[in-house]
Amino acid sequence: MKILIACEFSGIVRDAFIARGHDAVSCDLLPTEKPGPHIQGDVLDILDDGWDMMIAHPPCTYLSYAATRSWNDEGRCKKRLDALDFFRQIWESPIEKICVENPMGCASPTIVKYSQIIQPWFFGDPMYKTTCLWLRNLPLLIHIEHESLFEAPTHTDKPKPDYVCEKTANNVHGEEAMCGGNNRASVDSSGTPSRCCGTQRGLSGIDLF
User: From CA 56, how far away is CA 87, in angstroms rounded?
Assistant: First the structure.
């Protein structure tokens, strides 16, 4: 599959998809931190380039509810409206399969209601970060709290909240679950947090191997 990883400069998600045989390219205004296929520029300029799927991490600075204390600051309203319009253009792009990831914020329901809420600790990453997924033509990510005869749990102990909304590589959780890793959470998994266990599937909703 030809996959666009929008608003990523770390290369983490891009490289996870490449490792599983996909033609994945990251795009950001910043240069990539890791060598690999990367387009430095405005992702809106390449949305019509024939992608099969897009994973997008639009900046949350002016969208997240974590910043509500500053919403009335001078110039903040315009920046929030610009951020919402960027989110809208990402979501309405002519790409068949889309996953947009962002913290809780005003994008839902202003643009469209999120499809699923997840936490990194649902999938083995001991971090607390309420994360929304907007999914188009992709299944919900399945996570498992308790062990059973047929399924291993993906949850780890619930950590204390750490309210962070910053675009760094350390905030990317779940590249394994995104593309169907060897430690995966369950069957038709999609999304961002990290471990999976079931059939070898990923965000595409189809067998990756």
Answer: 9
